[in-house]
Amino acid sequence: MNEGMGIIERIAKWIEEKKIFVRERKSNVKRALGMLLYHAGLSYNKTMENIP
After folding, report:
1. DSSP structure class, residue 1
2. Which residues lie below 8 Å from residue 14, measured CB to CB, with a gap of 6+?
3. What pTM was computed for the model?
């Protein structure tokens, strides 16, 4: 199926195919990462503060 793609890329592709977001303020990869972090109970903003 999508063997070469990671989970974030697959979610980003799904976001694009289903046209979930109308505006392009953030990339779909960042949105996918935010969705995964939210599902895990983490904050995207607080997590990104610790990543250089």
Report:
1. -
2. 20
3. 0.71
